[in-house]
């Protein structure tokens, strides 16, 4: 399909074009000095007009990921951000995906899943994830139009083949089915195989919660977690999510936890800020405790939730195994270190496994939502250590205590390095670039 793609992705002409684009389109209040001195000047780049036609020499799809890694390494010198309109991010992602022959309905689901998740984050990930999806689509390890296939089904369970289409599309298909079964029979349990990166699990569990149900979601991922007493990674970040409704929205419960001591986002944030990791969270390449986030991410591995064995890390390790049982073992997807990272698997499909559960509380004791309200109120009444830092109940109120990338006029914050990569993507796919002003 893309045999004409060459290997020269990260070349001087592309960097020059990208630099010119950013210099012409970024606000003067967003300085470019760091990139000029540390990156662009090394390429002898000077401001110039954009070419009349987009630069669109074909390139090797796997180099997308490699180029992204290089750009990310450069961005670690210091982080600069820029705020982009939410609707413009959605427009750009949708056009990139449909240019890659992704089903329009699927493209909308993916954009909704990724962009909405960026609403309450210090910086957004949608553009970064878009690059990885495009790489998989180019490699044909992901199918942008395949329809998930039901392999087995009864009143309360189903086993689904995701057919290697987009992860959020598979997830929505499965959670919608779980909701229908739970409405009729009290519970719905759907297991899927042959999936891709799912995104944030609470995006799916909240769909059940909005229907008055309890929603749960599990997903296995590429290996990053070092089992207790081991010296190398074997299990993934392996998230678990649960959402439960209450009578009042502020009392809705919604939580997602990784099986690792820190999430990937937390590690990347430490790199971006030049901060150290907390102790007892990661190993370096020699299986020694480290607080260097780069050592942990690129050479080492993450400790399970709880850290070392003596601080309860075996519980996080066991939680990761629970996720593997619910996803990989149940659904016959890959599991353990057979799930390769992006740069390890080449053109092989990811074949992740997910589990989605919806439970109808009306099939049990009545007044579930009222008790949820009472429970949330009782937690908020607990006396805090610091009066300015109240005890937090995991609900929408948590957003008040999170650094948000949402600014005035409904803009989302993204790193300049992500905007650089997005512009290169627009040139190669011949899609109108992001409007930054």
From TrEMBL:
<dbReference type="Pfam" id="PF02615">
    <property type="entry name" value="Ldh_2"/>
</dbReference>
<dbReference type="InterPro" id="IPR043144">
    <property type="entry name" value="Mal/L-sulf/L-lact_DH-like_ah"/>
</dbReference>
<comment type="similarity">
    <text>Belongs to the LDH2/MDH2 oxidoreductase family.</text>
</comment>
<dbReference type="GO" id="GO:0016491">
    <property type="term" value="F:oxidoreductase activity"/>
</dbReference>
<dbReference type="InterPro" id="IPR036111">
    <property type="entry name" value="Mal/L-sulfo/L-lacto_DH-like_sf"/>
</dbReference>
<protein>
    <recommendedName>
        <fullName>Malate dehydrogenase</fullName>
    </recommendedName>
</protein>
<dbReference type="InterPro" id="IPR003767">
    <property type="entry name" value="Malate/L-lactate_DH-like"/>
</dbReference>
<keyword id="KW-0560">Oxidoreductase</keyword>
<dbReference type="InterPro" id="IPR043143">
    <property type="entry name" value="Mal/L-sulf/L-lact_DH-like_NADP"/>
</dbReference>
């Amino acid at each position: 399909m893309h045999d004409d793609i060459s290997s020269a992705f990260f070349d001087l002409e592309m960097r020059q074009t990208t630099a010119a684009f950013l210099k012409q389109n970024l606000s003067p209040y967003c300085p470019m000095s760091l990139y000029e001195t540390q990156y662009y000047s090394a390429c002898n780049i000077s401001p110039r007009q954009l070419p009349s036609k987009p630069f669109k020499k074909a390139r090797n799809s796997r180099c997308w990921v490699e180029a992204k890694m290089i750009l990310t390494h450069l961005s670690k010198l210091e982080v600069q951000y820029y705020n982009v309109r939410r609707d413009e991010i959605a427009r750009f992602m949708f056009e990139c995906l449909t240019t890659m022959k992704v089903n329009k309905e699927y493209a909308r689901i993916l954009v909704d899943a990724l962009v909405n998740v960026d609403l309450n984050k210090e910086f957004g990930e949608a553009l970064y994830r878009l690059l990885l999806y495009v790489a998989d689509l180019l490699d044909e390890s992901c199918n942008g139009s395949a329809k998930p296939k039901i392999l087995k089904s009864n009143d309360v369970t189903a086993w689904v083949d995701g057919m290697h289409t987009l992860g959020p599309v598979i997830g929505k298909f499965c959670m919608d089915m779980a909701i229908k079964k739970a409405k009729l029979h009290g519970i719905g349990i759907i297991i899927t195989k042959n999936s891709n990166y799912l995104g944030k699990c609470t995006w799916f569990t909240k769909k059940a919660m909005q229907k008055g149900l309890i929603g749960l979601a599990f997903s296995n991922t590429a290996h990053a977690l070092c089992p207790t007493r081991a010296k190398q990674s074997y299990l993934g970040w392996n998230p678990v999510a649960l959402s439960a409704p209450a009578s009042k929205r502020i009392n809705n419960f919604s939580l997602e936890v990784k099986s690792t001591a820190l999430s990937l986002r937390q590690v990347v944030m430490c790199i971006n800020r030049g901060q150290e990791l907390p102790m007892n969270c990661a190993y370096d390449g020699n299986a020694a405790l480290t607080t260097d986030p780069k050592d942990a991410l690129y050479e080492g591995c993450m400790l399970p939730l709880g850290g070392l064995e003596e601080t309860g890390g075996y519980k996080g390790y066991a939680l990761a195994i629970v996720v593997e049982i619910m996803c990989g073992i149940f659904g016959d997807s890959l599991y353990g270190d057979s799930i390769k990272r992006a740069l390890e698997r080449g053109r092989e499909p990811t074949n992740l496994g997910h589990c989605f559960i919806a439970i109808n509380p009306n099939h049990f004791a009545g007044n579930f939502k009222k008790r949820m309200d009472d429970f949330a109120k009782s937690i908020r009444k607990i006396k805090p250590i610091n009066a300015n830092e109240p005890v937090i109940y995991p609900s929408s109120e948590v957003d008040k205590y999170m650094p948000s990338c949402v600014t005035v006029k409904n803009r989302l914050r993204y790193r300049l390095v992500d905007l650089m990569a997005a512009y290169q993507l627009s040139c190669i796919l011949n899609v109108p670039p992001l409007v930054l002003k």
